[in-house]
UniProtKB/TrEMBL annotation:
GO terms for biological process: cellular response to cold; ribosomal large subunit assembly; RNA catabolic process. Residues 7-35 form the DEAD-box RNA helicase Q domain. Residues 38-209 form the Helicase ATP-binding domain. Residues 608-617 have a biased composition (Basic residues). Its EC number is 3.6.4.13. This is ATP-dependent RNA helicase DeaD. Belongs to the DEAD box helicase family. DeaD/CsdA subfamily. It comes from Acidithiobacillus ferrianus. Keywords: ATP-binding, Cytoplasm, Helicase, Hydrolase, Nucleotide-binding, RNA-binding, Stress response.
Length: 617
């Protein structure tokens, strides 16, 4: 089976809570290793998976094995061995996201360098899944602080890497501490003799799955990557869009929701952009592609599935906004450009913790992806000025300007002003909405209200006062007082709305400081939020048309909900308290170096994805 077969995650016999999480994450079709591994692992069979790093192995074993976990037992039932601390954390975080709808589920990453006392406390509280490095797992076995007597399954992830790092004896020792009837899944890029011996010794009649990865990419495509750093992704993308010589762009993200959100934010910044995902009907998909071909759209944000088979001659650039977990997906993505002998550009955004995926892509394709320098503010200014000069030349060569020459001559005589000053004033008027020299807040400041870097359009850059939100009198934001009013939004939990989406949309589109967006409550069919009572009518009218989760906000004042005037604003962490009939969501606002992060989480959730134990984990 392959991605081309039409098989979808919903076709697997996964537990319903796991299917729900996969759907929410936005996964659509499984990669080859996932398609071939999930059914036998669900059936309890041992599996050997031979596939390169970056082919989607984590979901291949996590989804079926999590479906078989007994939540009534708070003892380790699944053990995953990983060669490095980084991979252990990554696998644990992925499992936490897949199990978000499993009540009482807990996963614990165990690795060297972390407090042993902290790990002991969490083990005593009870966990169903342990993900760890061999050395630290051995330490716990020697101390008898880790019980494996009720283990259902063991996963050896990147077994050849554990062999290379000298952990193979530790792996064997750990396997000898596991029950005889446990299931084993072994994943490795290669099969050295030592790994083959372990497979013969500890696996029972395993199904061997070999995945051939793509080995070549189009030579006509120049491949570059930018390491995500302090500048947010959207800022980086808009700088690249401004500076690169291009025709049309295809931007890839992981989920269907992300296609809509990113397309909306690029549109808000003045780009002709559309979304392409699996939820679109065939008619709408064809319409979007036709608009891209005809030049009505310059950018399409797409998922892998939606862009399969797409062949548009105009596409000069492919942006991997989210790095793919599957190396074959990367090859398919960048193959949308550089077709029929044409030149193409492929740019990959890589977070520091995704560097292993970058290396996997380089190994699989046999090509080096070179680092790129993000265009600076000066680069953007130079580009805008060059385009402005080109426009001047085009108008001078192609338009009859006699009427305007007469007008300028009259103005010069009447006001005794030099032609240079008049030309400068006219240039200022023309570029006022899109300054030739970008201001800092337009392209370099962290975006307010969205830690993913979704920001407000630069063409709408105005002062806080002009946008209807009063700036701090003290300049520090401390001790300010703002009269607040409660508003109703026509989007709720049933539509997929999250607090971060609502806060980000309002902060970015209305320019309201994040400290003045309060008490967001998500209900089934609507939401409520408190905003400054002195918002200008034009701001409210604009918010009426802002879309979140595929619906316009349709913001209206909520009856009888004007909060007490002069409510103090404090830039310390705050939370919305849950009343008896309040929605089961809370908003935490965490100040980090002047930015604000918005996180939504379910009350009573299990262990969170971080190194410190969450309260109640």
């Amino acid at each position: 089976m392959s991605q081309e077969s039409g098989l979808r995650f919903i076709d697997f016999a996964l537990a319903e809570p796991i299917k729900k999480a996969v759907t929410e994450i936005g996964y659509e079709q499984p990669s080859p290793i996932q398609a071939q591994s999930i059914p036998p692992l669900l059936g309890g069979r041992d599996v050997i998976g031979l596939a390169q790093t970056g082919t989607g192995k984590t979901a291949a074993f996590a989804l079926p094995l999590l479906s078989r976990v007994d939540l009534s037992l708070r003892v380790p039932q699944l053990l995953v061995l990983a060669p490095t601390r980084e991979l252990a954390i990554q696998v644990a975080e992925a499992m936490q996201s897949y199990a978000k709808f499993l009540p009482g589920f807990h996963v614990l990453p165990i690795y060297g360098g972390q407090s042993m006392g902290l790990q002991l406390k969490q083990l005593q509280r009870g966990v169903q899944v342990v993900v760890g490095t061999p050395g630290r797992i051995q330490d716990h076995l020697r101390r008898k602080t880790l019980r494996l007597d009720q283990l259902q399954a063991v996963v050896l992830d990147e077994a050849d890497e554990m062999l290379r790092m000298g952990f193979i004896d530790a792996v064997e020792d750990i396997l000898q501490h596991t029950p005889d009837g446990r299931q084993v899944a072994l994943f490795s890029a290669t099969m050295p003799d030592a790994i083959r011996r372990i497979a013969k010794t500890y696996l029972r009649d395993p199904l061997e799955i070999r995945i051939k990865t793509a080995t070549t990419t189009v030579a006509a495509i120049r491949q570059r990557y930018w390491q995500v750093s302090g500048t947010h992704k959207l800022d980086a993308l808009t700088r690249i869009l401004e500076v690169e010589d291009s025709n049309a762009w295809l931007v890839f993200v992981r989920t269907k929701t992300a296609t809509v959100e990113l397309a909306e934010r690029l549109e808000a910044r003045g780009y002709a952009c559309g979304a392409l995902n699996g939820d679109l009907s065939q008619a709408l998909r064809e319409q979007t592609i036709e608009r891209l071909k005809s030049g009505i759209l310059d950018i399409v944000v797409a998922t892998d599935v939606a862009a399969r088979g797409l062949d548009v001659e105009r596409i000069t650039h492919v942006i991997n906004y989210d790095i793919p977990n599957d190396t074959e997906a990367y090859v398919h993505r960048i193959g949308r450009t550089g077709r029929a002998g044409r030149k193409g550009e492929a740019i990959l955004f890589v977070a520091p913790r995704e560097r292993h995926l970058l290396r996997a892509i380089e190994r699989a394709t046999g090509q080096t992806i070179t680092a790129m320098h993000l265009p600076s503010i000066e680069d953007v200014a130079d580009r805008r000025m060059s385009q402005f000069k080109d426009q001047l030349t085009e108008v001078l060569n192609g338009q009859d300007l006699s009427v305007f020459e007469s007008l300028i001559a009259d103005y010069q005589r009447e006001n005794d002003v030099g032609l240079g000053e008049i030309a400068a004033a006219l240039a200022y008027m023309v570029q006022k909405e899109r300054p030739l020299v970008p201001v800092e807040s337009e392209m370099t400041k962290p975006m307010r209200g969205d830690s993913a870097g979704m920001g407000h359009p630069p063409s709408r850059h105005r002062s806080e006062e002009a946008r209807g939100a009063r700036p701090s009198r003290s300049g520090s934001g401390r001790g300010d007082e703002v009269s607040m009013c409660r508003f109703r939004l026509d989007v709720g939990e049933n539509h997929g709305a999250q607090i971060k989406n609502i806060v980000g949309a309002i902060a970015n589109e209305a320019g309201i400081p994040s400290r003045n967006i309060r008490k967001v409550e998500i209900h089934a069919e609507h939401s409520t939020v408190e905003l400054p009572a002195n918002l200008q009518p034009s701001i409210l009218q604009h918010l009426q048309r802002v879309w979140v989760s595929g619906r316009p906000l349709q913001i209206t004042p909520a009856e009888g909900t004007v909060s007490a005037a002069r409510t103090p604003v404090r830039p310390r962490p705050t939370a919305v308290r849950e009343e008896p009939h309040a929605p089961r969501k809370i908003l935490s606002i965490k100040s980090v170096k002047g930015e604000h992060e918005y996180k939504s989480k379910e009350r009573g959730a299990g262990a969170v994805k971080r190194k410190r134990p969450a309260r109640g984990s």
